[in-house]
């Protein structure tokens, strides 16, 4: 595809790297974590993730979230908003919201599953209600199972700031994968 003659060339030159705005991300082998997931019942596995006994998945390490707690049918993630989460208009990108909401809903479902049963998200419906910025402070995302059937689970997730103000909600249907 060729550019039109009226198109302005991109003349933005990136600034020299600022060490305060650099980030290095490392992660553990996701296959090893996935193997551990298949060997334990869901609640035991998710609680081991929360306790740090099992390495977190790469996506959690990439965005800087942490799994705070897990009980049967409910999990809580936390995130400290940072500049690297920002979109071009100066607030946290909707994809970060969606990642937290999807993770909380899916992990809540996982807490209800026997060893050897997995899941995958079929859909995620997100409603954005308030902006999130660095000044928002630590946010929590709680996922809760509302229905667990033989093949489909329904979960809800709520993303809130430290004062309990609702930032976003989501619902997710998950397909259960039986071994």
Concise structural overview:
The chain is an alpha+beta fold.
Task: Tell me about this structure.
The chain has one domain (29-177): Hotdog Thioesterase (Thiol Ester Dehydrase, Chain A, Roll). Helices cover 24% and strands 30% of the residues. The chain is built from four helices and six strands, in the order αααββαββββ. It has helices at residues 30-39, 42-51, 58-63, 94-110, and strands at 66-71, 74-79, 118-128, 139-148, 152-160, 166-177. A hairpin with a 2-residue loop joins β1 (66-71) and β2 (74-79). The termini are far apart.
What is the number of independent domains?
A: 1
Helix content: 10-25%
> Strand order of the main beta sheet, please?
1-2-4-5-6-3
**Any guess at the CATH architecture?**
Roll
Largest sheet: 6 strands, antiparallel
Q: Kindly report the average pLDDT value.
A: 94
Distance between the termini: 47 Å
CATH class categorisation: Alpha Beta
Q: Using DSSP, what is the number of strands?
A: 6
Number of DSSP helical runs: 4
Sequence-ordered SSE layout with sheet pairings:
Layout: H1 30-39, H2 42-51, H3 58-63, E1 66-71, E2 74-79, H4 94-110, E3 118-128, E4 139-148, E5 152-160, E6 166-177
Antiparallel strand pairs: 1-2, 2-4, 3-6, 4-5, 5-6
């Amino acid at each position: 595809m060729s550019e039109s003659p009226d198109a302005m060339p991109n003349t933005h030159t990136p600034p020299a790297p600022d060490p305060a705005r650099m980030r290095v991300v490392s992660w553990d082998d996701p296959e090893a974590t996935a193997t551990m997931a298949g060997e334990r019942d869901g609640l035991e596995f998710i609680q081991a993730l929360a306790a740090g006994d099992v390495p977190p998945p790469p996506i959690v390490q990439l965005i800087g979230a942490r799994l705070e707690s897990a009980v049967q049918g409910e999990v809580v993630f936390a995130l400290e908003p940072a500049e690297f989460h920002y979109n071009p208009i100066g607030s946290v990108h909707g994809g970060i919201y969606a990642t937290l909401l999807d993770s909380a809903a899916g992990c809540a479902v996982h807490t209800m599953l026997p060893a050897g049963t997995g899941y995958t998200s079929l859909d995620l419906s997100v409603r954005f209600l308030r902006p999130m910025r660095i000044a928002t402070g630590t946010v929590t995302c709680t996922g809760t199972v509302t229905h667990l059937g033989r093949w489909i689970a329904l979960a809800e997730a709520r993303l809130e700031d430290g004062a309990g103000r609702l930032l976003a909600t989501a619902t997710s249907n998950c397909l259960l994968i039986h071994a």
